[in-house]
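INFO  loader      accepted 1 record
INFO  loader      residues=294
INFO  predictor   begin
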Amino acid sequence: MVHIDDPATQRANLRFIRAVMKAPLLSRDREFDLARRWREEGDAAALHQLVCAYARLVVAVATRYRGYGLPMGDLVQEGNVGLLQAAARFEPDREIRFSTYATWWIRAAMQDYVLRNWSIVRTGTTSAQKSLFFNLRRLRSQLGENSGRPLSHQGRCQIATALAVDLGEVERMDLRLCTPDQSLNAPIGEGEEDGQSLLADQRPTPEEVTADVHDRATRSRWLAEALSELSPRERRIIDARRIREDAATLDELGRALGLSKERVRQLEHRALLKLRQSMRRRVDRPEDLFAGAG
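INFO  predictor   done
INFO  writer      dumping tokens
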């Protein structure tokens, strides 16, 4: 989807671009001096002069991402955020020009904005996907592939090799870029039916939900009745070993009951047999106890 700025916004963008292009360039020494004043003294005037001098970098980088259909003004704003981040992190003592350092931050801020807003579906969540998203069109053009059709197998292989990514990643990103977002509410063909009406609802029906609630309640009642048929000691063992989340060990229960670990195991086994027999008496088929459970 292509986003077009309104005329007022376009005029504001043009005024900004003209203003930043008129800002004087900085010498290496002046650039480092301003960066030190901001970093060491918190001089806001120095930061303002440094950022204004290199705002032209933001405009230059923004023009490279206009092809993704996003507003130029928004790209510039995101780039300005990256420029400010560069100014906050720049270390003059490393003897690197600020323009070189800032370009990376500006580009990173714009790429993140493009990935977040190019589609309603999140794109470029891995480094391989991000590399493909921003390089696939350029490489496709270099290979002479038709932009309106999926890549040929040879083209996919060449791009996967060039970007050092998996062939499957190339195929998925190629299909993603060739297929724009479509609304499920848009009519299909000449009929009035839309895509949303063709999607099957995988959730249980109201009748299934009601039956499941009834069955769960019935099984819970049967289990409570079966537990009541056990001796107090057997109920304590089953509760500690099978019902509580922090299940006790045989050794712990043996010490608490004054029994050996093996005797506790025998009592647990006997209690479980009683529970199974009690539950099975209530149904014609044992598998009915688990129908709809989960």
